[in-house]
Design goal:
- The protein is of the alpha/beta class.
- 51% of the residues lie in helices and 16% in strands.
- Helix 1 runs parallel beside helix 8 and helix 5 runs antiparallel to helix 6 (121-133).
- The longest helix has 15 residues, at 157-171.
- It starts with a strand and ends with a helix.
Length: 172
């Protein structure tokens, strides 16, 4: 495992898992949100964003967390391991609300400075509907790559803990 991408709904735990995996494996970590959002929540233009990711994946080792479904294929092409959080919308919606409270007026560690935590109804709807609107296309992509990629689907906190324990045991 040298190139790991972590995807899933907002509030699923992508950044937390990425940070923990990076600490265990010592693989370099890239939170896509920290690169996409410029101070003041200004989005990176598409062409620049695509180029950034195409260059990023050329590195021999990485953990990249973030969805950005328009550019998912860029990362899939080079990843050897794909971790997909497939959690209930009740859990993910609760977590984004909890995160908003925790980081009120501050920038999360996985975001660019100048992007204080925020939450609006559009994002809550996106998180709530992720399984219905985004999950089918993601599962279709994963099915295509199941023979040439290590695909891990996490459906519970217990499975996340078990995965982390497996990696800890490999390094000891």
């Amino acid at each position: 495992m040298e190139r790991v991408m972590i995807i899933g709904s907002g509030g699923s735990g992508k950044s937390t898992l990425a940070r923990k995996l990076s600490n265990i494996t010592r693989l370099p970590l890239y939170h896509l949100d920290a690169y996409y959002w410029q101070p003041g929540w200004i989005a990176t233009p598409n062409e620049e964003w695509d180029t950034f990711q195409q260059e990023l994946i050329l590195n021999n080792e990485w953990i990249i967390d973030g969805n950005y479904s328009r550019t998912l294929d860029i990362r899939i092409a080079r990843a050897d391991t794909i971790i997909f959080f497939d959690l209930s919308p009740w859990i993910t919606t609760f977590r984004v609300i909890k995160r908003r409270i925790k980081y009120h007026g501050r920038t999360r560690p996985d975001l660019n400075e100048g992007c204080p935590e925020q939450l609006d109804w559009e994002f809550i709807r996106w998180v709530w509907n992720f399984r219905k609107h985004k999950r089918p296309a993601i599962l279709d992509k994963l099915k295509i790559h199941e023979k040439d990629k290590n695909i891990i689907i996490l459906r519970s906190f217990r499975e996340v803990k078990s995965l982390l324990d497996q990696f800890r045991n490999r390094t000891t």
